[in-house]
Amino acid sequence: MKFATLINIEDSIADLVAGESLFTAYDVTKTLRHKGYHVRHGEVRDAVRDYNFPQMYTEGVDNSIGAIVHFNRNYAISDYNPNWIPEYAVANGGGPTAPSSPGPKSTGTGNGATNPTATQIVDKRSRFCVPASKLRGAGFIKGMQVKVFVDHDKIVIHNGTDGAEVTVDKSNNVRIAKGTLQNAFDSMPSTINIDVFTNRVELSIDD
């Protein structure tokens, strides 16, 4: 059994924020448990309370469940669905039921790849958000200038000289534009593989 650290908790929060999700602290707890982590909800609740949310995020109380919902200002608190992440079912020898989130899924197979089955969501502008955990694994931190370019049938994020310059945002994410995805993969993919190396992240799809 693996125990969730503060970094694991913050990475899960960052991924939900990057996907413009509406969520409570308990949703973060369920997300971590689905990933196989042992975590106390009280620790997650404290981490969510202390998290440095971007300005585009606000919060409100959902009176139907009596919990604080964190949400992007483009949405309303009434859009929140408390059942969008299933409970972690372990009764009668059962295992976790995978969360049902729309959008491309990322898998990681490269050196240092983390959270290999984390679900990512394309935002309203059809940009793919590279998870904070992957970028940290490559050594990229918020505020850092990196380069993005298409190398045949893959997209490369690195700290070299080739490519368009982008900034790792305050949630430690990089968003890949729709045009770049289509240029590399011909069409919008349903699954994106993420390979993590030192100072380099590669995005690809299965043939």
Low-confidence stretches: 90-107, 109-121
State the domain count: 2
Element string (H = helix, E = strand): EHHEHEEEEHEEEEHEE
Structural class: alpha+beta
Level of helix content?
10-25%
Strand order of the largest sheet: 5-11-12-8-7-9
Let me know the largest β-sheet: 6 strands, mixed
Q: Please state the CA-atom Rg, rounded to the nearest Å.
A: 17 Å
* Average pLDDT level: 80
The number of E-state strands comes to: 12
Distance between the termini: 34 Å
Strand proportion, as a percent range, falls in 25-35%
Shape: globular
Count of alpha/pi helices = 5
How would you describe what is shown here?
The protein has 207 residues and is of the alpha+beta class. The protein folds into two domains: 2-93, Arc Repressor Mutant, subunit A, CATH 1.10.10; 105-204, no CATH class. The protein has five helices and twelve strands. It has helices spanning 6-18, 25-34, 41-50, 132-138, 178-185, and strands at residues 2-3, 37-38, 57-62, 67-72, 105-108, 128-130, 145-151, 154-158, 164-167, 174-176, 191-197, 200-204.
